[in-house]
Write a structure and sequence with these properties.
The structure holds 2 protein chains of 2 kinds. By secondary structure, chain A is of the alpha+beta class. In chain A, 30% of the residues lie in helices and 41% in strands. Chain A contains 4 helices and 9 strands, in the order βαββαββαββαββ. In chain A, strands 5, 6, 7, 8 and 9 form a 5-stranded antiparallel beta sheet that branches. In chain A, strands 2-3-1-4 form a 4-stranded antiparallel beta sheet, covered by helices on one side. Chain A starts with a strand and ends in a 5-residue tail after the last strand. In chain B, α17 packs across α18 and α17 packs across α24. By secondary structure, chain B is α/β, with parallel strands linked by helices. Chain B is globular. Chain B is built from 24 helices and 20 strands. The model of chain B has no long low-confidence stretch (mean pLDDT 96). Chain B has a 6-stranded parallel beta sheet, with helices on both faces. The chains are: A alpha+beta, B alpha/beta. At the A-B interface, α1 and α2 of A face loops of B.
Chain lengths: 163, 567
């Protein structure tokens, strides 16, 4: 994907069809979505979406303006312009024969991950962190053989204290 | 007292000021049709749902009000999609009511079920599926509110049959209730930016106003005309902007873009300041973007933030309603009059543009003796006979461009044409809508033989309601614009553009109960047009025109505005 990575935080009315309006806007205009996460907010009438996408300045400006133009959009913030905290959760099912199990558990410990399911041949690991940490865990576990993964996509919030 | 959903809908439409609705009945909307005769809303039964939406669109463009159409579920709804996309591209306020299968059947592939909300999501400003009768009145009110505020556009409301039949106490939602925290279009102009623009105009030596449909839809044509004359700035317009400035004014440059005048395109390319007002830098207007107006500073005022900085870099951007912006700018200029002599400052430039127009006027080669009628001549005659006072709808293609080039539009809302989508079959139903809005006005559809056949069935509608729409077919036996491209860019490979089997349009008109005329010689054009305009009924005039006549000037796709092909 070309251009810089941007994390957009989009506050929308919690109405049927809102997700497809937003996702449809991206696909209909040829913008790419790297990850999309959506959930309710403290106010049950609103949902917050976190979308990571790539593009040059002009494309991102268009994306933000188009998102704001949707009748159901309340607020759009490009978190890339702010200091923000980003997290993603990943579940990884890893090959774990007896001889390698201890090593895997050590890595799980170092990265402060959790083992959430065990079987004689596999371990399922829950990892949470920013992009850097997630990609480091991936590269460390790859050599054991990752059999399946499920990712939530990035969630992000602006930091409370901004310079 | 409790009302049914159908009664609530009609009560809401009445209160929204709907006096005419274009529609076609079906199983899912029978309840509404059952109630319709009890309400003061005239229903116009079209012959195809595409006709309904285009007619509602034409009604809206001509009158400035919000158009409304009513169709059934499934095929009724999908038949409106082209018309919805047409209204969306041209920012026309229309509310579309579609019937839907009962809520318990939604998602079951029920008879005549289609997810029209999903289908039209990308070509409506917004759309709704009403799932609870409690939401009905508020949804209809919001639909009208959304359609005509901010950047106008079509809004669709999908109504399941059981919602039409359910009963509830009717409460009319007040203005406070229709407000949405997520919808607050920015309409107020920034006064300091406006002052900055006037300062730029003072410094400019070769300013041009480039006006678009936004000037017309925000009813700003009068202020634009006043300002252009006071600031002494030449005016060009997009296809959608035609009529926003009188074509007989010396400051008028003609339309710009692919089939724009030499003068307008040259003026844009040489300009040092462009005031882009309610226009969106469409690719048909700019030509090759990288070479568009290379010497100019750009000012862009538009209601839609997404239109600004979309294609070209703008020096002074402003998001505002054009009506408010130009009224405010006029007030600033009025309070500042005498401080600056705009006429002297810009007169050499205005004179240059007038000289260009004298050197390269919009023109065509007149026919030699025995040659077929020239289509441009027909449009010129229509203009001459109507003195620019008719409402002109067009189909799409060469007929549309000749109408834009050779008819001198004098007033806003007198030119109805599918600009953004280029929808063949738009003109005739749109003319029907306009004639409903203005029963006493002369309404003319300038058509091609290809386009007119796309919604020809609406002849029955026009005849049924005694609508004296005049259809002037510039009949060259071709899909002319595609043929022109095939000639110029595809080595005359006229693949599938020759309309070999033509109906007899005169007999066809008569078969529907309309009047039909045929013209084959230039000398008969004026006489027949006069006769057609005098008849108080629907008329087709089938003018056999030169088959291989082209639209010039032409900027080939991908070239700059400076690279025009002339006659």
């Amino acid at each position: 994907m070309e251009g810089k990575r941007h994390v957009l935080s989009i506050l929308v009315e919690n109405e049927p069809g809102v997700l497809s309006r937003v996702a449809g806007l991206f696909s209909g205009r040829g913008f790419n979505i790297e990850s999309l996460n959506v959930g309710p907010t403290l106010d049950r009438g609103m949902s917050i979406m976190t979308i990571t996408t790539f593009g040059d300045e002009q494309i991102i400006e268009q994306i933000v303006k188009q998102l704001r133009k949707l009748v159901t959009t309340i607020k759009v913030v490009d978190l890339t312009e702010h200091i923000s905290v980003e997290r993603e959760m990943v579940l990884l099912k890893v090959n774990a024969e007896d001889s390698r199990r201890a090593e895997i558990l050590r890595i799980v410990d170092i990265f402060r991950c959790k083992v959430v399911d065990v079987s004689p041949e596999e371990l399922t690991i829950e990892a949470t962190g920013d992009r850097g940490k997630i990609s480091a865990i991936f590269s460390m576990l790859q050599r054991f053989g990752i059999k399946e993964i499920a990712r939530t996509g990035t969630v992000a919030l602006k930091r409370s204290l901004q310079d | 007292m409790e009302l049914t959903g159908a009664q609530i809908l009609l009560e809401c439409l009445k209160r929204e000021g709907v006096d005419v609705i274009f529609g076609y009945p079906g199983g899912a909307v029978i309840d509404i049709y059952d109630e319709l005769p009890k309400h003061p809303i005239q229903h116009i039964l079209v012959r195809h749902e595409q006709g309904a939406i285009h007619a509602a669109d034409g009604y809206a463009r001509a009158s400035g009000k919000t158009g409304c159409c009513l169709v059934t579920s499934g095929p009724g709804a999908t038949n409106t999609v082209t018309g919805i996309a047409t209204a969306y591209m041209d920012s026309i306020p229309v509310v579309i009511i579609t019937g839907q299968v009962p809520t318990p059947l939604i998602g079951n592939d029920a008879f005549q079920e289609v997810d029209i909300v999903g289908i039209t999501r990308s070509c409506t400003k917004h759309n709704y599926l009403v799932k609870d009768i409690k939401d009905l009145a508020l949804t209809i009110r919001r639909a009208f509110y959304l359609a005509h505020t901010g950047r106008p556009g079509p809004v669709l409301v999908d109504l399941p049959k059981d919602i039409m039949q359910a009963k509830i106490k009717f409460v009319w939602p007040d203005d406070e209730a229709i407000k949405m925290r997520s919808y607050n279009p920015n309409i107020k102009p920034n006064k300091r930016q406006l002052q900055k623009i006037i300062e730029l105009v003072k410094k400019a030596q070769r300013p041009v106003i480039y006006a678009g449909g936004g000037v017309i839809s925000s009813n700003a044509a009068e202020d634009l005309t006043w300002l252009a004359r006071k600031l002494h700035i030449p005016v060009t317009a997009t296809l959608m902007g035609l009529g926003c400035f009188p074509a007989d004014d010396p400051l008028w440059l003609g339309m710009l873009g692919m089939h724009g005048t030499f003068t307008a395109n040259k003026a844009i390319q040489d300009s040092d300041l462009i005031l882009a007002l309610g226009a969106r830098f469409d690719d048909r207007v700019t030509g090759k973007i990288a070479e568009f107006a290379p010497k100019a500073k750009l000012v862009h005022i538009d209601i839609d933030p997404t239109s600004i900085q979309k294609n070209v870099a703008v020096h002074v951007p402003m998001v505002a309603d054009m009506g408010l912006a130009l009224a405010e700018m006029r007030a600033i200029v009025e309070s500042d009059l005498g401080a600056f002599d705009f006429v002297s400052a810009h007169e050499p430039w205005v004179k240059t543009t007038i000289d260009w127009d004298l050197e390269h006027p919009i023109k065509y080669t007149p026919p030699k003796k025995g040659e077929a009628v020239k289509p441009q001549y027909v449009v010129e005659k229509i203009y001459e006979l109507t003195k620019g006072k008719a409402i002109i709808a067009t189909e799409v293609g060469q007929n549309q461009m000749w109408a834009a080039q050779f008819y001198g539009f004098q007033a806003p809302r007198t030119f109805l044409s599918s600009g953004g989508l280029g929808t063949m079959g738009y003109g005739f139903p749109a003319a029907i809508g306009a004639q409903m809005a203005f029963p006493d006005q002369l309404v003319i559809d300038i058509a091609g033989d290809g386009s007119i056949q796309m919604n020809i069935q609406e002849l029955a509608t026009a005849v049924c309601y005694n609508l004296p729409v005049k259809i002037i077919i510039l009949n060259n036996g071709f899909l002319g614009m595609v043929r022109q491209w095939q000639e110029l860019f595809y080595k005359k490979n006229y693949c599938s553009t020759c309309m070999e089997a033509q109906p007899d349009f005169v007999k066809l008109a008569e078969a529907y109960g309309a009047a039909g005329f045929r013209v084959t010689r230039s000398r008969d054009v004026e006489k027949v047009l006069k006769e057609a305009f005098a008849i108080k009924k629907t008329v087709i005039v089938d003018v056999r025109v030169a088959q291989e006549e082209n639209v010039y000037p032409m900027v080939p796709a991908g070239k700059s505005l400076g690279e025009m092909l002339l006659v």
